[in-house]
Amino acid sequence: MSDAVEGRSDRGRDRDAKGRARSARPRDGLGRPLPYGSEGVARQPEGVVRTPADTLTEAQALLDAGKPFHAHEVFEDAWKSGPGEERALWRGLAQLAVGLTHAARGNRTGGARLLRRGGRAVEEWAAEAGQARPYGIEVAELGAWARELATAVERDATSVDARTWAPRLRGKRP
């Protein structure tokens, strides 16, 4: 018996046109799956190759909109398609976005852990590369933001507002 939902196989598993597993479920602004047929937030297309400046601009817009899960997907594209020597930078930025996602979802332990891991990764990459501001990223401020949010998440029993806590990747908030 075939499932009536587009993109789902006879076994109810989501597949793309090539048969690879892909979740077709709609998602909310924090990337949480919603029931099939629900109105969700548009997903970021996968595998988009952007310039570093475009990556940072798009990710910042998503972070400012309270969509860190979607910003993580933009960083993930840069991590997977960019030069090998920059992968740790983009992976660290993706971890920061996922850390904020978990913190906003109320996952205090995972959020704090990923925020610290991502902050360290970005700071370590910048130090090894000898770049305090790669692509204009304020590495020191970003690391301080990650530590501050990780501490707040561990201290407080509630989730954080992703929009309020969105980091500034290049410079301070106006």
Structure annotation, total helices: 5
Based on CA inertia axes, which overall geometry fits?
Answer: globular
Computed structural class: mainly alpha
Query: Which stretches of 5+ consecutive residues score pLDDT under 50?
Result: 1-10
What is the average per-residue confidence, as pLDDT, rounded to a whole number?
Answer: 88
Report the C-alpha radius of gyration, rounded.
17 Å
How many beta strands in the DSSP annotation? 0
Instruction: Please give the share of residues in helix.
Output: 40-55%
Task: Tell me the major beta sheet.
Answer: none
Distance between the termini: 56 Å
**Which percent range describes the beta-strand content?**
under 5%
Order of helices and strands: HHHHH
Word description of this protein:
The protein has 174 residues and is an all-alpha fold. Helix content is 49%, strand content 0%. The chain has five helices and no strands. The chain has helices at 52-64, 68-81, 87-105, 108-129, 139-155. Helix 1 (52-64) packs antiparallel against helix 2 (68-81) and helix 3 (87-105) runs antiparallel to helix 4 (108-129). The longest helix has 22 residues, at 108-129. The radius of gyration is 17 Å and the shape is globular. The N and C termini lie far apart (56 Å). The relative contact order is 0.12. Mean pLDDT is 88; it is low at 1-10.
